[in-house]
Amino acid sequence: MNELERAINLLKHRAEIIRDMIAYNMNFEPKSDNSSLEEQKKAMDVAISSLEKQIPKKRYIKFPCSYCPTCNENITDESPNYCPNCGQSIDWSVEE
Fold it and tell me: Could you please report the per-residue DSSP string of 25-79?
């Protein structure tokens, strides 16, 4: 597991803790203001999504086209190493 994957796992774990804290507050502290926790959770979700897109994923090939594995957008060999639609890093290698 590389540093990026470790960071994603750590953020996912922390996001789960925040989700549990929000659920606890809703069940046992109904007057508690969860807005700060919800804001933190949203920020973590954005960070996790952004970091996950940095990990190259193999393109989905349906001859003669290639598609982004995240958003299913048609991508071409002239595309950069990422999907121009969603930003997913693309692994252009060909398996034989």
Answer: HHHH-TTS--HHHHHHHHHHHHHHHHHHTTS-EEPEEETTEEE-TTT--EE-TTS
